[in-house]
Amino acid sequence: MNRRDFLATGVGTMMAGPTMGALAVESSPEVLPGFEDPAPSPLEIKLQVKPVMFNLIHSCLWEGPCRWRGIPPADERRLAEESFARWSKQLQQQGLGRREDVELLAPAHLTFAEDFRIPPEEMNKLAADAAQTDAYFLYPAGSSICGYEVASRFQKPILLRGLGCRSVDIAAYVHARGLEAYVAGSDRELAEILSLLRARKVFQQTRVLLPTDRGLPAVCSCGSIWDLADLEKRLKVSVVTISYKELAEAMEQVLADPTASQQAEQAAEHLLQKAHRSFIEKKYVVRSMQFYKAVQNLMRLHRCNAFTIECFEFCSSRLPAQWNIAPCLLHALFRNRSFASSCEADLGSLLAIRMLMSVSNKSCHQGNSDPGPDGTFTINHSSSSMKMAGFDQPDTPYQLGRFVSGGWGTKVALNFMQIAESMKPPEKTVTVARVNPLADKLLVLRGTLVGCSGWDQDLLGCSVVAVIRPPEGRADEFLKKRLQYGNHLQWVYGDYTHQLTQLGQMLGLEVEVIA
């Protein structure tokens, strides 16, 4: 089937995802004029799935143990073609999974004879778009081994629907041969598998920009990932390091550009107008937007779609004082568009942010973790973002604050409890996550948001706090787990422990869940 013909009437959706949050739906997060994304937003990335139907066409007519009602080969071929046409039409009309997760490629029909070997000319029907295919959705009529042959030839996951005998047979052999097969017992489960495979695709395309002269480990986030070669080899996450000299040159170019300065002025005015309250002067918000522009330019130059910077090394360079900026606002704005962005060059934090945002379709808050009163713990950093109710929702109410006593360093504050109460239904269950320094384990907690601070207060430094209660009797266990995982924690509204467990396993991570 020609892909142009297949897509002519568009691909619908078999299952819509749940509505998130309590507010009216927006089409997509806001892009500030002059601050276009430095790379395709992860929200725009889709899993490309190739549907494949197999059919057995016998060479002649006979009956036997595997053929209890024989029909002439010509009729067999006609029926197979009719079945493929119906299946293709159904896919075209209904789609697979959620529309925002999946792009269907043109279905292919492969036939074989009673030797059960797929002829090369048939298998070559899949070769033309194999490079762009992320997974194969199979309808394996007539044979089980055909599923393995596709997985083996193209080294891509195969997906099947229904827990019938043939799907189970295929999956068991494919798994035993060290390849990927996913079998969904329902349309809902199929949509979830497809969504998780998309999340893995987004994760493995992560390319981080890290300005540093010192390198890793970071000064005050040393409990994080430092082996960048291993990170790229195993998890396909790459990190591009640049010097502060290159960062400074990019910032000076923006400061000298009248157009960029005007865009920063307009963006700052826009952020201030939308803010519930502000404790910072406009000129300092403008300067933060100029820094945002400089980092965007560098990300575009180095083909990056994620960002982190080591705050203590950066502070000691005196560049923040020279420019009157702190990185906090950048983390908020990047996460508003679903770009992973983390404080203090903490890659264990950044990878958890990437996973949380992908499985929840919401942005997250990141921060230092410390024991709190009455079996709680706190997460405190001024790096929350306005899309914590959902990327498909309007911005949550936010306030702008200052990081230093001199009045500069734009940061974002949210009222986490108010946001939780405004969601329909109210959502105080939260999911917390972190990746360990060896990047081979994922820690996941299901907790309850019980308090917050930083709203309506002119506070300095990191001062936007979430208070979270772990499951009953497990606070000490969780707090001590941080000895293996590190400091910064990140969280989102809702329970995504199951999805994170599945995604972690898809990435080859050992997953520890406290729920």
- As a whole number of angstroms, the C-alpha radius of gyration is 26 Å
Q: Quote the distance from N terminus to C terminus.
A: 47 Å
Tell me the overall shape. elongated
Beta-strand portion reads 15-25%
The level of helicity is 25-40%
Main beta sheet strand tally, sense and closure: 6 strands, parallel
- In total, the number of strands is 20
**Low-pLDDT residue spans:** 2-27
**Count of runs of 4 or more consecutive helical residues:** 17
- The chain-level structural class is alpha/beta
Overall mean pLDDT: 92
Structure overview:
- With 515 residues, the chain is of the alpha/beta class.
- The protein has 17 helices and 20 strands.
- Helix 7 links the parallel strand 7 and strand 8.
- Helix 8 crosses helix 10.
- The two termini are 47 Å apart.
Lay out the secondary structure.
Blueprint: H1 3-6, E1 47-56, H2 73-94, E2 102-104, E3 108-112, H3 120-123, E4 135-140, H4 145-154, E5 158-161, H5 165-176, E6 181-184, H6 187-204, E7 207-211, H7 228-235, E8 238-242, H8 244-255, H9 258-274, E9 277-278, H10 282-301, E10 306-309, H11 311-316, H12 319-323, H13 328-336, E11 340-343, H14 347-360, E12 365-371, E13 377-380, E14 399-402, E15 410-413, H15 416-422, E16 429-435, E17 441-453, E18 465-469, H16 475-485, E19 489-493, H17 497-506, E20 510-514
Parallel strand pairs: 1-2, 1-3, 1-4, 4-5, 5-6, 7-8, 7-10, 9-14, 10-11, 17-20
Antiparallel strand pairs: 12-13, 12-19, 13-18, 14-15, 16-17, 16-19, 17-18
Helix pairs in contact: 4-5, 6-14, 6-17, 8-10, 9-10
